[in-house]
Design goal:
Strand order of the largest sheet: 5-8-7-6-9-10-12-11
Number of strands: 12
Shape: globular
Radius of gyration: 19 Å
Structural class: alpha/beta
């Protein structure tokens, strides 16, 4: 059940959306605006906000999402999820905060944030919002991913949407935007974030998964990734801090296959062919996962 519904805008007319509840269960069965545009909840619990021609971008497939779910459910990236939750929590300690997980995928990282807030502040009786007091939004282009995210995070409003289109959120409505291995629309993030809000971006570092990347057919890491990130956000955001997270993994051949299929290379990778390439791997392969968590503030907020 949704903990708190954030203010949402109709993607057609930009008027406020109101929740339409099911009389029997109390669940939100639709979102509707006064111009009578309505968006029904899918059977799995998410809402599709793509309108008009939808999107030209390729979304994650059901097979890619299944691979990601299996890999993340196994806890391999849990240290990263926990570190991200700790980074987000300080900006979610005010009254009625809102978090947007842009490119939420299967919702695992948003789940970690909500769990951390619950463990730290419970129901908010200490005056600081716990998970029940946070309005959480998961946005992703893949309906297959949102099916999983809606099941994992029933407290959140899970929306199918394109990060390159105007987001269904008002100006200055969000305390934290998290972006984990997902596209970054700096203009929209700056618009929806409060002046004191934080943009938290997770990227891989050079050498990430280097032990298996070539054999598994995964894309290489751009050595200028940090510079490109800074350039993409320049003028709207200024860096506050960075934290490197190193995770030593012991992966089975199936884990390696899931890792390869769950990322961008999964769009062009056949599981059977991949399994053939990985047949020579030992039962356990040591792999280094190297991440960077970068926190940004609105440029005007970071000025002395």
């Amino acid at each position: 059940m949704l903990s708190r519904l954030p203010v949402l805008l109709c993607p057609v007319c930009r008027q406020d959306l109101e929740a339409v509840h099911d009389g029997g269960t109390g669940r939100v069965r639709a979102l509707a605006c006064r111009e009578r545009h309505s968006f029904d909840a899918a059977r799995q619990g998410y809402f599709n906000m793509l309108v008009g021609k939808g999107t030209a971008f390729e979304s994650d497939t059901a097979e890619m999402v299944a691979a990601r779910t299996a890999f993340l459910d196994a806890g391999h990236y849990r240290p990263l999820a926990d570190a991200l939750a700790r980074a987000a929590a300080p900006a979610l300690n005010g009254p009625a905060p809102t978090v947007l997980d842009s490119g939420t995928g299967t919702g695992h990282y948003l789940r970690a944030i909500l769990d951390y807030l619950e463990s730290e502040h419970g129901d908010g009786a200490d005056g600081v919002a716990g998970a029940a007091g946070v309005a959480a939004v998961g946005l992703d282009i893949s309906k297959f991913a949102l099916r999983r995210a809606a099941r994992l995070n029933p407290e959140a409003i899970n929306l199918v949407g394109d990060v390159w289109q105007p987001m269904p959120l008002p100006d200055a409505a969000v305390d934290v935007v998290t972006v984990v291995f997902a596209p970054r629309n700096a203009a929209e993030f700056a618009r929806v974030l409060k002046p004191s809000g934080r943009l938290i971006v997770v990227t891989p570092r050079a050498g990430h998964l280097g032990e298996i990347a070539s054999q598994a057919g995964m894309l290489g890491i751009d050595p200028a990734k940090d510079e490109r990130l800074a350039e993409a956000l320049a003028g709207r955001f200024s860096p506050l801090s960075t934290q490197d997270v190193d995770v030593d993994l012991s992966l089975s051949p199936e884990d390696v296959a899931n890792l390869a299929l769950m990322g961008p290379a999964g769009h062009h990778t056949d599981r059977a062919a991949l399994s053939g390439r990985l047949a020579g791997l030992p039962p356990a392969t040591r792999v280094s996962a190297l991440f960077r968590i970068s926190i940004f503030l609105h440029s005007e907020s970071s000025a002395p």
